[in-house]
Amino acid sequence: MEKTNVYGVVLAGGKGTRMGNVEKPKQFMEVGGKPIIIHTLEKFVVNPQFERVIVLSPKQWITYTQDIIKKYILLSDKIDVIEGGATRNDTIMNAISHIEKFYGLDEETIIVTHDSVRPFVTHRILEDNIHYAKEYGACDTVIPATDTIVESMDNQKISNIPDRSKMYQGQTPQSFHAKRLREVFDELSEEEKTILTDACKILVLKGDAIHLVEGEVFNIKITYPYDLRVAESILGGNGVC
């Protein structure tokens, strides 16, 4: 049986505007004495299933990203830093093009896409993503919704209250057969592309099945100043593996 090539795709293209008036994007802010993105990348580079890890960065931060990776990560030669795109999905397509150009792309190539500002992803979550992406072609990391979800079509009045037992909160990683994801994305109309909120929706629009992977409550996305305090608390407790 041929080996399936698996690539980590770490999305670090955000500017972090919701973090407030900060001098650099949130992925470079420090928690536990290291930039957030470094905590994230460490989880990928120590996993032997990843052929390479591709980091997508704003153009003006590529050199900075390369420098801190060399400073903090011993296996830095396993990581490529390239420019992200205008949108999240454009950024993922840039990663797929990079993999195809430098390492080759076939029907079985897997990408595990992850937010650079989710530093508490676990080995188990990464392993489950790789397993289910190989088996089903696509998977999404989620946790059950704990709050009641309220839908409002006009943003003023309640339109619907879905059954909470069937509602989940999306996290990352989201993992895919890379070639299939790109093929479906290229088939979408410009109108369909405008409603995309994440990569899974590309496949949902075309009816592809996406398997659920169990996430963790602590697999948080660091978005607001409050999240930095939560992250420091999690690191202080050493409760994440």
Automatic annotation (TrEMBL):
<feature type="binding site">
    <location>
        <begin position="11"/>
        <end position="14"/>
    </location>
    <ligand>
        <name>CTP</name>
    </ligand>
</feature>
<dbReference type="InterPro" id="IPR018294">
    <property type="entry name" value="ISPD_synthase_CS"/>
</dbReference>
<dbReference type="InterPro" id="IPR050088">
    <property type="entry name" value="IspD/TarI_cytidylyltransf_bact"/>
</dbReference>
<feature type="site" description="Transition state stabilizer">
    <location>
        <position position="26"/>
    </location>
</feature>
<feature type="site" description="Positions ribitol 5-phosphate for the nucleophilic attack">
    <location>
        <position position="164"/>
    </location>
</feature>
<feature type="site" description="Transition state stabilizer">
    <location>
        <position position="18"/>
    </location>
</feature>
<dbReference type="InterPro" id="IPR034683">
    <property type="entry name" value="IspD/TarI"/>
</dbReference>
<keyword id="KW-0548">Nucleotidyltransferase</keyword>
<comment type="similarity">
    <text>Belongs to the IspD/TarI cytidylyltransferase family. TarI subfamily.</text>
</comment>
<feature type="site" description="Positions ribitol 5-phosphate for the nucleophilic attack">
    <location>
        <position position="221"/>
    </location>
</feature>
<keyword id="KW-0777">Teichoic acid biosynthesis</keyword>
<keyword id="KW-0961">Cell wall biogenesis/degradation</keyword>
<protein>
    <recommendedName>
        <fullName>Ribitol-5-phosphate cytidylyltransferase</fullName>
        <ecNumber>2.7.7.40</ecNumber>
    </recommendedName>
</protein>
<dbReference type="InterPro" id="IPR029044">
    <property type="entry name" value="Nucleotide-diphossugar_trans"/>
</dbReference>
<dbReference type="GO" id="GO:0016779">
    <property type="term" value="F:nucleotidyltransferase activity"/>
</dbReference>
<keyword id="KW-0808">Transferase</keyword>
<dbReference type="Pfam" id="PF01128">
    <property type="entry name" value="IspD"/>
</dbReference>
<feature type="binding site">
    <location>
        <begin position="85"/>
        <end position="91"/>
    </location>
    <ligand>
        <name>CTP</name>
    </ligand>
</feature>
<comment type="function">
    <text>Catalyzes the transfer of the cytidylyl group of CTP to D-ribitol 5-phosphate.</text>
</comment>
<feature type="binding site">
    <location>
        <position position="116"/>
    </location>
    <ligand>
        <name>CTP</name>
    </ligand>
</feature>
<dbReference type="InterPro" id="IPR034709">
    <property type="entry name" value="TarI"/>
</dbReference>
